[in-house]
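Suppose you are handed a protein chain with no further information: no name, no annotation, nothing but its sequence. What can you learn? This example shows the usual starting point.
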Amino acid sequence: MSWNPVWEQIFSSRSWGRYPAEDLIRFVARNFFAAPDRASVRFLEVGFGIGSNLWFLAREGFTIAGIEGSKAGESIARAR
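A reasonable first move is to predict its three-dimensional structure. Written in structure tokens, the prediction is:
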């Protein structure tokens, strides 16, 4: 069961949000790219949708976790 059926319908019916927002990339780059051990920097995203932000953060070597209320969104994120 989804927390909000609207997001379930959105994630099930169209490709949306495949890439992280430029603001997030800028914020992470300014504040955390110079970290000596990126794996020690942890991010939690509540409502991660299809996981674009988490995908970016994991690819950059950070430790990630997330909570998503849409089964369709979670399924797409896991497949990435």
